[in-house]
Write a structure and sequence with these properties.
By secondary structure, this protein is of the alpha+beta class. The chain contains five helices and 17 strands. It has a six-stranded antiparallel barrel. It has a five-stranded mixed β-sheet with strand order 14-3-12-13-17, covered by helices on one side. The longest helix has 12 residues, at 237-248. The relative contact order is 0.18.
């Protein structure tokens, strides 16, 4: 009989010095841990050798979300400085954001970002976040010229333009909207993808915009009491059909990372992959049975 898993069963020691603060010189040189579930063995490899674990006919499901420069420095008209961390687009020129210091920023406060970008910070939402309305609705170009790449909290250094602009994105990143990279895909290079294609593998793309919830620690004792924040996804008809075909031919669908997995699990309905777009709150924990 199943018992609810306790959060502390997931605790383990991770020494700070083992958390890489810089990427490897080449993407595909990162180390790869291989778990053979049948044999129960763990072996180490290098990511560039990942092809030997795949078979001709397999299909990789890649998340093509692109990290936005979500961190903005702003100044109130009264002179106070603040940081705006954009989380998700609510409408044209309107975003949900974390604002620091929030308590000292009254609803309706006008702020200036960079030389001349005007925005208004509205009342807090239920989760203590703020709605931010930009005068110019082309927020992506505002971010391109004024924003910073938001590195995850475990990277204890400032973002470096030269390295992080390129390396904190996958090589196939396309759809702007994530505040964190889908990290499992960071190690693929264009050359490695071409090599896998030659071996008989195919790829499909889907989009899941990784949200701020990816950094939110589980603060409850029992894991089923945790609530996963909804994240925006798009799963096209072409991708769904391609995966159904792969399955029909008896081949494997290989999900690159947890973000792709959540979309595939959300859109596997009545025995097949179905196209769709919207928000997913798919939360996977034992004894979840994968579709």
């Amino acid at each position: 009989e199943f018992r609810t898993m306790k959060t502390d069963e997931l605790d383990y020691t991770l020494p700070d010095e083992l958390i890489a603060q810089e990427p490897t010189p080449k993407r595909s040189e990162s180390r790869l841990l291989v778990l053979d579930r049948d044999a129960g063995t763990l072996t180490e490899d290098v990511f560039s050798g990942v092809g030997k674990y795949f078979e001709s006919g397999d299909c990789l499901a890649l998340n093509d979300t692109r990290v936005i420069r979500a961190r903005l420095k702003a100044q109130k008209l009264t002179g106070g400085k603040l940081e705006i961390f954009l989380l998700r687009e609510l409408g044209l020129g309107e975003w949900e954001a974390l604002v620091r210091p929030s308590s000292r920023t009254k609803p309706g406060s006008k702020v200036v970002i960079g030389e001349s970008v005007n925005a208004t910070i509205l009342e807090p939402t239920q989760a203590g976040r703020r709605r931010v309305v930009f005068e110019d609705s082309d927020v992506l170009s505002i971010l391109q010229s004024n924003g910073e790449i938001p590195l995850p909290p475990y990277i204890q250094r400032k973002a470096k333009e030269s390295v992080d602009t390129e390396r904190y994105q996958t090589v196939y990143a396309r759809a702007y909207g994530a505040v964190a990279a889908p990290t499992a895909g960071l190690h693929f290079t264009k050359g490695l993808l071409a090599e896998l294609k030659e071996k008989g593998l195919s790829t499909i793309t889907l989009t899941l915009h990784v949200g701020y919830g990816t950094f939110k620690p589980i603060q409850v004792d029992k894991i089923d009491a945790h609530v996963v924040e909804p994240e925006d996804f798009v799963f096209t008809k072409e991708s769904a059909s391609a995966l159904n075909e792969v399955r029909k031919n008896g081949n494997r669908v290989i999900s690159v990372g947890t973000t792709s997995t959540r979309v595939l699990e959300t859109q596997y309905i009545d025995g097949e992959y179905r196209t769709g777009a919207g928000l997913t709150q798919c939360y996977i924990y034992p004894p979840y049975s994968f579709h």
